[in-house]
Structure formats: C-alpha cells, structure tokens
Amino acid sequence: MSSRPSSPTARAFSSPPSTTSTDPELLDDIELFTTEYAFRRRELMDLINDLRAMGAEVLIELPSVAVIGGQSAGKSSLVEAVSGINVPRDSGTCTRCPMECTMSSATSEWSCTITIRTDYDSNGRPLPQSRIIPFGRPLTNKNDVDIWLRRAQAAVLNPSDPPHRFYKKNYQELKDFNSSGTLKFSRNVVCVSILDPEATDLSFIDLPGLVQNEEDDVIELVRNLVEAYIQKDRTIILTTIPMTDDIENQQSVRLARAADGEGRRTIGVLTKPDMLGDGAIGARRKWRDVLEGRAHRLRHGYYCMRFPDDAERDEKISRAEAQKRAIEFFDRTGPWCDIPDRGRFGVPGFVNDVSKLLCRLIEDSLPNIKAKVDELFDETTADMNALPKPPSLDARIEVLTRINNFCERFKEAVFGTSDYKKLAQRNRAVYAIFKPAIRSTAPEFRPFPGQAFEYSSVGDIQEVRDDVTWTNDPRVTPMALFDIRKVIHESTTWELPGNVPFEAKASLIRSFVSLWETHANACFASICEILNSVVEEFVKEHFGRFKALENHVSNCIAQELKTCVEEARQAVKDTLTQELSPSFTQDTLTYNNLRGSWLSHFRSYYNSHTSYHTGVPGGAQIEAVADPLRAVVQSGFEGLTSADVAKLVPGGSFEDEFVVMADVRAYFQVAYKRIIDHLPLTIEHTLHRSLSARLSKSLLTSVMSTSDFTEQAEKLISEDPVVAARRLALETRMKRLIDIKVRLSTFVF
C-alpha cells in the first residue's frame, strides 16, 4: 500500500469514506449526522457553491464531483436517485451541456431553482465575466423539473435567442426546435439548486454522456469536455459502469484512469446488477472481485446501485420505495448478499460517503485556494499597474495635452535643454565626421620641379595642425610647381607682365570646394536619419497608446518633415554654392599669417627638394628634372621650344607658383574652418529648429480644423483595442477576485 500523501488534496483522497469499514484509516473523526458536522458541511457546500457562482472556477480549481459515463450506462438514473428529481431521459434525448446540481437540507419544504451560468462564448472561449441568468420561476412541484430542464438546455444550446423564448415551449416544440444557431453541445452550465429537507448536502456536476454513434467532431467535443473536468486534481470522479458489459470496454473507465492514474479520486458506480441473469455466474464473480477490491482497485472503491426499471418508473414509485426495493434486492440476491460491507449497496450510503469525502476535500483545499486567490490578486494588480493609464474623460484635453507635451519635448531635444541629450549628441557625432571629411579635401601642393608623384608630401605648417585625423580624399590630385605654372598659363588673358591672374587661384579654390558636396550630402543624410528615428521615438512615446492619434500625428509630422527636409537640403546646396564664388574672407589676420607661413614652408622645401625625391620609373632619377624642357613637357606643356622654356622658367624662378600655392592653401584653411561650422548651423536652423517651430501650429490645426473637435478627439484617443480588451479582462478578473476574497474572509477556517 502506498505511503500516506502529504498534500491537502492527497490527504482528502487518502482514505475511502465508507461508513461500515472497521479499518481506523478508513474512519472519519466526526459522525455524519451530528448537528455540528451537518452545520459545518452546509457551510462548506455553501462556500464552494458561492465561489462557483462567482466564476471562481475559471481562475482556480474548486473541489467538485463530476459524474461521467457512456450513454445507457445508468448515469441519468444515478442522477435521479441522488437528487430526487426527474431528468430528461426519453429515447433520442441526451444531456448536451453540463448540469450542476446542488442539494441542501436547510429547508422545511421542497423547492427547485434553475439558472444558467455562462462562462464561455458560442465558440467555447472563456468569457471575461461569468453571467448568472435566472431561468423561470422557482419550482415547488417535482413533476415540473423535467420540462424546465429541457427548456434550460435548449436556451443554453441557442445562445443567440433570449432565454425567456423557451419558457412556454412544450415537449414536442423543444424536440422540433432547431435553428441555424443551435449548438450540438455547450460548455455552459444549467445550474439546479434543490432545497430538500430529506436531502444530504452535496453538489455535483452531471456531464454529457460519452457518445459513440455520432459524428467524429461531436464525439471528440464531448470527450474533451469530460476530460477538461476530470483532469483537475480537486475533482472527485464518479464513473457509472453498467455491469452488463466488461469494465475494460467502458470509455469512462479509460478516461478516469488517464486522468487519475493512481485511482485515488475515482469512485466506481456499478449499475444494472438486476440485468445479470441467473446464469451469469462468471460475470457475478468478476463484479464481486471488483466490489471487494481484488480487481480494478480504486482508493475509494465501488458502489453498486439498483435503479427502478421501466415498469417501476411507470408505477411512479416514490424515492423511498425505490431505495427499499433496491436494498431488498441486494439483501436476497447473491453474491451481493454475501458481501459484508453493506454500505457499498444502495444510494443512501453512497451519497453520505461522497458528501463526506467532498467536505473533507473542501476543508483541506481552502488554505491553498485562499493562497492562490491572494497570488492571483497580486499578479492582477501588477498587470493592471503595467498598463498605460486610461484615457482622460475629456478627449479634447487629452489630445491637446499630448500634442503640447510632444512639441515641448521635441523642442527641448532640439535645443538640448532637457534630460534628452541623444539628438544633440548624435548630431554632433555626425558633424565630427564631417570635419575630417572636409579636411581631407585640402590641396596637395608639392613645391618641387618635375612630376608631383616623384616627391613625397611636405606636410602641414604648424598653424594648421590640430587633433583631426584624416586620410586624403582620393579625388585630390597632388600638384607640383609645373602643374601650378600650367594653371597660371591657362588662366592668363590680358594681365600686365608680373601679374598672376586671379582666375588661376579661383580655379584651384573651386577644385577643392567642388569636392565638398559629396561629404555635405552624406552628413545631411545621416542627420535626417537621426531626426526620423527621434521623431518616431517621441511619437511612439506620446501617442503610441492611441493608434488612431498616433497615425494622425505621424501623417501630419511626415508632411512637415518633408517640407523642412527639402528646405534644409536647398539651404545646404546654397551654402556650398556660396563657397564657390566669390572667394572671400574678412579674417585677413588669419589669412595673412597662414599665407606667410605657407610661402616660407614651400620655399624652404623647394630649397631642399632633393631630400623628398622618390625617383621615377626606369631609373630616370634626378636628371629628368635637370632638363627644364623635359620637365615642362612632362607637366603638360606641349610643342614648346627652348625659347619658350626660357620664358616659362626665367632664371629658374618659381616665385609666382609659390605665391599661388600659399594663397590657395591659406584660403582653404579659412574656408574649411568656416564650412565645418556654417553647414552644421545651417542644418540645425533650417531643419531641426524650423521643424520644431512649425509642429505645434501644424498639429493643433490638424485636429481642431474639423467642425466637431470633440467628436474628432474622441475618435483619435479611442484606446488600442488590444489594450482596451486587456484592461477590461483585468478589471473583470480583479472584480471577481475581490468578490472571492470577500466571501473567503467571511468563512472561518
């Protein structure tokens, strides 16, 4: 025998509640019929019934008793015998929804109340809130119960019709009723509350009979419904087993074993013993082994029932008479009369034992139920706190407040005056990349005769050295003295002798300024990408709760952003155009200092040019430069004579070339310093600050320009359906949990 379980549920199921056994483990400490126990039992039953009516079973497992069995297994007869009411049982009729039956002896007169508890929609999905629908008037005549149960079941199977539509339908009308919305089965429950002074306090749920001669989807639907109930650890399984068939053939037995492998919460109810003929000696022997625990052992064993046959039902014998005849049958019929435990035969002992077992299960489960409710309450509270705050009651204020907060937040980000530093910092990082990119376009002048590639770079003067690291733009072509002389030559028109044409310097300036467009466009594209991401982030932050408002604002901002981007792009283009012409600076002090330094720098390197010679292909070496004519021709002058060379190289002087180099290189430094500040400021003002200035008016106009601003605002802040559904579900759960906690708080543990 297995060790005694320690969990509350296991303890409740640890021993069978037989009233006749002498085994100390199988006895309860309190007598069933004492006043104290009867009162406590009623309290426990009332508590669980109240919790179930609140829909607690959707959230937590409640102790329960489920009656299962195949069609024609005697399940309806068992329900009638236990409850004392008549249930639909004529040919072609079967239970198509669960029936929850609650019996209480706290009354002096018999009455019955029927309600419908709706926990699921027509597709079988749980509803956020259980609905308890009273069905008809309280009944005081047992003969009325049958027809009203049929009517209630019809109402459950036709959820699209109002329940009162079925109040006056007769048997034939109910049988013939079938609409396009009629369900074959339903998980919603017909609740039957019986007040009977002769009853034993008990609550059970009668599940639809397991069917075999139906469509596959119906068979599976019923099986799934049964499995959903009996797999719960706090459910006592009453499986009805007809003795006219082998126990191994019973689907209800197989399902019970699958859900309760140890058999600790399953009770077998053997039916139809009177249909075993005198010659069925082997079958009687097998069933005796089952009843006495030698075969198909269950922790709580089996009970054997004999119910009225058709003739006796036609006689309309009383409940007491039916029980009397059953006892007489078991007392005089072998082998049942030879079994010592007489509590295993007939309805009274069975009902008392099951009631006692259920009460023990409820008592032991209550601490865990309370703890689970507290846990769910805390979880639901946390989930509700995690949701965004619900919309303001005044939609106009909600919309205007969110727009104003968004615009203010964006303005602060643009100006860098808030805790949000990301926009300014990311923009500065892009501008920091733009700086060395422009620096890389500096002219590469090499103050040496001959070809530029024959000499290495002469580096920068001290005045222009900074912390910027760059790599020369590959589009920059190094230029030596004869390259500069060629530019001067090609620019000369009607200048007087000794005057270098300004166009020579202007063309060299244009050559590096023209390279800036690529770097400026790359900088601008990166800035726009950053701006888009920040705008999206802010829109999501301020309007993300309301999809309609978010979409409206996004579309409006997109239009303004597009306009600002085009204007800023044109401003960038204009800024670059201004650098092309005229070549101008008022920073004469810096310019002159740089010009002088570069002039000295170039002259100095020219005087030591042999130290920077790298050689030419084919071993031409320095003699290639010694021939002035050859050097000039290699620099691009063609068709020249010695006399021409003499004019180009008078006395070997390159003073004009040094001056041009120094002027252009000095101006690059001034223009470079100017553009790396001017262009970022242009972008900041024409893009970011311009957009910031426009947004408030644009957004407010877009929402207030309609004829009915209130209606427009209400549409815009309609909560996201997913969030709204989540909020409703949590609020409904919280209300249910509060009701459950209040009910539990009134119970003395």
Q: Using the CA coordinates, give the radius of gyration.
A: 49 Å
Number of helices: 24
Helix amount: 40-55%
Number of β-strand runs: 9
* Morphology: elongated
Biggest β-sheet: strands ordered side by side in the sheet: 4-3-5-2-6-1-7-8-9
- Content-based structural category: alpha/beta
Mean pLDDT: 86
- The quaternary structure here is single chain
Query: What's the N-to-C terminus distance?
Result: 32 Å
Largest sheet: 9 strands, mixed
Low-pLDDT sequence parts:
1-6, 17-33, 616-626, 645-651
Number of domains: 3
The fraction of residues assigned to DSSP E strands is 5-15%
Pfam family, one: GED
GO cellular component, one term: membrane
Domain GED: 657-749
Protein name: P-loop containing nucleoside triphosphate hydrolase protein
How would you briefly describe this protein structure?
Keywords: GTP-binding, Nucleotide-binding. Residues 1-22 have a biased composition (Low complexity). The protein has helices at residues 8-12, 35-53, 75-83, 145-157, 171-176, 216-230, 251-259, 281-291, 310-315, 319-332, 347-386, 395-415, 422-439, 481-491, 502-513, 516-543, 547-580, 588-607, 623-626, 628-634, 642-648, 655-704, 709-716, 721-745, and strands at residues 64-68, 99-104, 111-120, 126-134, 189-195, 202-206, 235-242, 266-271, 302-304.
